[in-house]
Specification:
Structural class of chain A: alpha/beta
Shape of chain A: globular
Number of helices of chain A: 15
Strand content of chain A: 15-25%
Oligomer: homodimer
Distance between the termini of chain A: 51 Å
Largest sheet of chain A: 8 strands, parallel
Number of strands of chain A: 19
Chain lengths: 460, 460
């Protein structure tokens, strides 16, 4: 089956390969063979060998970095619909006057599908090949992913106050179970999961019952955790303990729990996360923009906690560009610790690739470019003025590249983007549909207009 | 001369105009006439009027933001040659083992010219139309700017230890004076200026003599100020006072002094800067990447201090993308002050345009799109997935756009970039020359290789 002499689906030649396994590994002038969705071989020195193996499609990566596709470990894709809806506001006014009412009114099966399509387009164009999403109407997210050829961990969301999908408390476990059963094994691209919003918006009963379904069905359990000081205050008031201790006492922490944010942790909570092998999604831009705080990532890494990078939803970021998030992560921790040696470029690239795969429990399938793994590979074009000269590829990826430098993307052995053109998505249909929803949001009065202003800035 | 019926050089129609004068002003569907390097008229409602005025070239800005070109108030352009040379190192090892030896060996009249050409290409491609540079061999920088049609405040550099241009102490004032005389009035694009590196690398005599030349010739005086805690310690030890007080006592502070960084200031120093009307260049990415600290920008703004944004040189950033710098500025101050309402998107756009013009003393000529000003205008393409939908243009510029979204650029009434193609620079000649210099730097052993690595990642 893995006979290297059989005709390949894709052959990548040239450029410089960052395999990410081991993390600092660099292969000059590689030849990479892909067949049946998988990486068949990775060899060095393409230019010096004679005949190349036969392949249906050859990608010339000269002047490019070849590397694993980026893994976004925390987002809420449909929130692209509210991108820039209301910024620079106090957190509670932002949520209560803009985001929550807009979600209540505009989030449904169809808008989630439309928003996810746009989000997937944006992710593919900026180098992400796997996302981890948590929101409502997640079947629409899964459907959009399969159609677009995008890989995702797709988590149906649960919260105790009325959500757009209006589940009753009694229904939650059933909805969770049937979502998982419905999507498990249906597509190699979609892995179902479950997310409880947070310890302060979900009761202990809700948390326990959803985690029980996750355990029973063997899927990941996601949660926002220790994002704000206000959350810590609330949990202490209600339960007399810190948020991580609260979850530990409810038996929610294990290696299939992925916690996002994790900012306000004491030493004991860091130890609890490490001990229970909880995975962490670090989302620096959202934390910065909302003034939430700085997660103690260097302390997590030194305890061996698996940490990936995420963008969060577009209402609080406001884009899905993981390369930007990588830069932010490196720079934020350097200034916050007054130490330019923390969060090196290589470590950050690892967090965005193999580290992210580990957070999602997918490290056996994706996250590095080695034979046997599924072929999730991107080409980053280094032949650009802002990436010249090139001394160190890790450094350029983190400190100078942006999503717009990604030249091609392969997911599961299928080319989904080439020369900045999307091959599986029709932007000409997706963008007008999202603009139409955006206009309705404006008409409903939920946006915060630029001020002072003469006329509405939204134009087709 | 300004007869609006005369044939125009350029007519811009459509899109949405951010005039930046007043700062929040938005003109829907504008018509902008440009002739003889200047903006002749700005009108609303292009689609509803009948015949358009005659023009040699019409730029269709449909779906774009039209706005003043960005102003980079602090950089060292030729340092693109050392972009990513050595990152994630302690400051002193970075400087002493990599940057200083590389400068000593490779910085001369010709490498400065080549590096500046590449830097100008990168700046134009990312929306910057005016830079403020300080380095050695600045005549080469000025020459490259004039040839490329780029606007710049070009400051010849002075430092007390041996610099690549090897001036003796006695020569400094003479060199300064002849640099200014040589470039004053020679091109509308180049404004000469002088920079002393810092209070810790320049003696009081050097500082006083260069500032005296600046005063006599009426040009701006630049300096790095209060960048690190170590600098504050050194100045206290040597002079028994804080850095700003030290400069105030030397009579260096006035409205023609532009101070970069300004991180470690006490209340008294903030008052001194405000009182003397000193202008400040804020360079958040460099400050973050080097772990230097966070400048008290909200406190500066509340005192009425003029603050612009800068990228710093590419050895410490590592690019010249001001849109990225805008995002960093907004997000850094929100998280640092735990307040999402500080440094709003509108304020940050102002800092990068009209505010930057004020810092450089050019506010009568550039920084906004109003009749009478020189025509420095950019078009930012909003028809992109990551900029959809569009609720608020200021928000998108700061939180979602990147330099790669800039579609066209006009400097002094001349189109220098259109549809991402540079019209005045030949990248096909510039990039190989910079790569050639980069290879020499690697051969000299001054770079920090990616590690572990199998082979040198630099490839043509």
């Amino acid at each position: 089956m893995n006979n290297p002499y059989e005709t390949l689906d894709i052959l990548i030649t040239g450029g410089t390969l960052l395999t990410m396994e081991p993390p600092g590994d660099i292969v000059a002038d590689p030849v990479i063979g892909i067949r049946d969705g998988r990486i068949i071989f990775v060899e060095e020195g393409g230019a010096t060998r004679g005949e190349l193996p036969e392949a249906r499609e050859v990608l010339d990566a000269s002047g490019c970095l070849v590397m694993p596709g980026l893994v976004n470990t925390h987002t809420h894709l449909p929130m692209v619909l509210f991108r820039g809806l209301a910024d620079d506001l106090p957190l509670m006014r932002w949520l209560n006057d803009h985001i929550f009412p807009a979600e209540e009114r505009f989030i449904d099966r169809e808008t989630v599908y439309a928003g996810t399509q746009l989000a997937i387009a944006e992710m593919i164009l900026s180098g992400t090949t796997t996302f981890c999403d948590g929101y409502f109407f997640e079947s629409s997210v899964a459907r959009a992913a399969v159609e677009a050829g995008m890989r995702g961990l797709v988590a149906q969301g649960f919260i105790d106050f009325p959500a757009p999908d209006r589940q009753s408390s009694a229904e939650k476990a059933t909805v969770a179970e049937s979502f998982v059963e419905n999507w498990r094994g249906r597509s190699p691209l979609v892995t179902p999961a479950l997310i409880c919003h947070s310890p302060y918006t979900c009761s202990p009963e809700t948390l326990r019952s959803i985690k029980a379904v996750a355990r029973r069905t063997g899927v990941a359990f996601l949660i926002h955790l220790a994002e704000t000081r206000e959350e810590v205050r609330m949990i202490r008031e209600r339960y007399g303990k810190t948020p991580v201790r609260h979850l530990a006492d409810l038996d929610l922490l294990d290696e299939n729990t992925i916690a996002a944010h994790c900012i306000w942790l004491d030493e004991n909570e860091l130890d609890l996360l490490a001990e229970h092998k909880v995975k962490v999604a670090h989302v620096p831009e959202s934390n910065m923009k909302l003034g939430a705080g700085v997660a103690p990532v260097p302390a997590m890494l030194s305890r061996g906690i698996a940490v990936g990078l995420g963008t969060d939803g577009c209402a609080s970021n406001n884009d899905l560009d993981l390369l930007g998030e990588m830069r932010m992560a490196a720079m934020l921790h350097k200034v916050f610790s007054a130490d330019p040696t923390v969060m090196t470029a290589g470590k950050v690239v690892e967090m965005a690739t193999s580290g992210g795969a580990r957070v999602l429990g997918m490290e056996d399938r994706i996250g590095s470019v080695i034979p046997g793994k599924e072929a999730d590979i991107i080409l980053v074009d280094m032949k650009r003025p802002h990436l010249t000269p090139l001394y160190n590829p890790f450094s350029h990826l983190v400190y100078a590249a942006s999503g717009a430098d990604v030249a091609a993307s392969i997911i599961g052995g299928r080319i989904v983007m080439k020369d900045r053109r999307l091959l599986q998505l029709n932007l000409a249909a997706i963008m007008p549909e999202v603009r139409r929803i955006g206009k309705q949001v404006v008409q409903a009065g939920f946006h915060r207009p630029a001020s002072p202003f003469r006329s509405d800035p939204i134009r087709e």
